Amino acid sequence: MRALKGPLGPVLSGWLALAAAVHLYFGGVGFPEPIAMRAFHLLAFVPPIFLLWPARAGSPAERPSWADWAWFAAAAAPHLWVWWNAGAVSDRMEYVDDFTPMMSVMAVLAIVTLLEATRRAVEPGLAWMVIISIAYMAVGHWMPGVLNTRPFSAGEILEASWLVPTAGGVYGPLTGIVATTIAVFIIFGSFMAGSGTGRLFSNLGAAAAGRFTGGPAKVAVITSGLFGTMSGSSVSNVITTGAMTIPLMKRIGYRPAVAGGIEAAASVGGAIMPPVMGAAAFVMSEITNIAYGEIVVAAAIGAVLYYFAILAAVHFEAKRMGIAPMPASEIPPWREVLADAHLVIPMGVLVYLMMERWSGNYAAFCATLSMIAIAMFRRRTRMSPRAIFESLVNAGLTMAPLAVAIAGAGIVVSALTATGMVVAFGGIIKDIAGGSLPLLLILLALTVLVLGMGLPTTPSYIIAAAIGVPQLVAMGVELLPAHLFLFYFAVLADATPPVAAAAFAAASIAKAGPTITSLHATRFGIAGFTVGFAFIYDPGIMMRGGLAEILLATAIQVVALVAITASYAGFLLSPLGPVPRVVLGAAGVAAAFVPAIPGPGRLALALAAMGLAWAMGRAARPAALRPL
Q1: Got the DSSP string for 350-405?
Q2: pLDDT interval class at 626 (50, 70, 90)
Q3: By C-alpha distance, which of 472, 599, 611 is closest to 541?
Q4: How far apart are CA 11 and CA 352, in angstroms?
Q5: Which of 185, 54, 38, 41 is nearest to 121 (CA)?
Q6: 601, 564 in Cβ contact below 8 A?
Q7: Can you tell me the distance from the alpha carbon of 194 to that of 391, in angstroms, rounded to the nearest whole number?
Q8: Residues 288-342: tens digit of each pLDDT
Q9: Which 3 state secondary structure label does DSSP give 325?
Q10: Bridge partners, residue 575, by sequence
Q11: What's the rounded Cα separation, in Å, for the pair 46 and 56?
């Protein structure tokens, strides 16, 4: 990102601060109609990208070029046009009313500038994915078999990619979520950082766990999980807690992508952690007619295992990378922690309002105002006008890349919907599975992950349940395990590549690549995959059956997850070489994913592999490979 010189720097900072302040204002008093809000959001945050992010390595580092100013104007034009014509755009019937030549010109400008902004500020891979999605709509009618689609005219492609507010595209529901709730959460997270809450978390992590290996990162995992179970939004959780935890993890030695991956994995897990479990769990109760309390009980062990696996992976990662405990001289006394303890109150306000079922944007609005007020109680945390301004600017800088990333994901979702691939998935999966339950589960898991490319957890789960539950029930799977299986993968979709909203948000904070961050988030969240399949094959994981069955199912998951995470990190009780890592990983995968082996056999296999890997590592002590 450029460090702008001259008057342009303050002007652009003022632009971003004003845009963030308007989002905060709307979060408290109410948003304008959806089209106008989405247009304002994109107008505020897409054009500045061309002034802040250079086009290539040789571009001017302290000022934009004339080409950048042309990109700025081109990016502003379509969103300004939609904002000015918001009423007419809202009233038009999608795919029925004419898509005028002016709309076609605006659509081309919006899509091309979005692709370039994505290439500059997010990553080229996402831009290419958007291009492939649009190209599929153009050539899908020439594709063979199940990939074949009806022909789309150029106008239909442009409309689906740009202006279908109810389904997808640049102006679809994803952009609406970012422009409303998530934007206000980003602002709250920025004010948390600006008020000194980051210092509070840093001191708390150091005081509570600084004497242990990777301790502050473990505190970050727990904090993200606890907050996530109340917020119900993985991206909002990343932004709120990641503003403090990711810099903390980087400071103690974790690489940026790893720190972002840890935060993303911990944040998405909040939706599977009782007692709240996010909005999708309430939807599950309505769909299944199963009491919410029963769902919470069935999900409890799996949620604990999910966070156990992340903590284990964090521990092995710290051991493998040689991240030692903090020196005693750097561990703050508890009185230093308590000096900032009042800054927890705004987070309590946020949690309370969300538990009382206030809207997320209003809860974040109230929490932001309370943060400014509570910070005034002590001189060390008091926010000056400059600090408030800088917090708004930082919020704007965080929102800009996220806005283009999510809008790009909207185009991908719109292409899948318009071509009918979402609806066709059910029939395709049933034919491919051919009566095999394991194959059906794998295909459904992949389907949910595809559906979750940018889709929020709740609609992703609803669509997946409509496609997959009837097929699972027809093959003898009980209703609740079928729903929990699909629910877990809908949650994990926010952290898995190629489009992972939570991982993208974490990457923007960590200053890391979104794809590598999402890959790390996937491996830290491996328990979501193992527990998801355990719901089908090991009912004890849902506290069903006798005590012995519950303990056996839990023990299998524990040893399998330890084996898999230790294999990837290259460390168990000592560094592991290539052979022990392969043995350990294979045994862990077999214990977690091969139900054909009896439960005691899977447990014994994983334990034996752990013992063998430890013995081989102790005997050879080679230099273990760094994880990918």
Answers
A1: HHHHHHTT--HHHHHHHHHHHHHHHHTTSGGGPPPHHHHHHHHHHHHHHHHHHHHH
A2: very low
A3: 599
A4: 38
A5: 54
A6: no
A7: 6
A8: 888 766 887 888 888 888 888 888 888 888 887 777 676 677 778 888 889 888 9
A9: coil
A10: 571
A11: 18
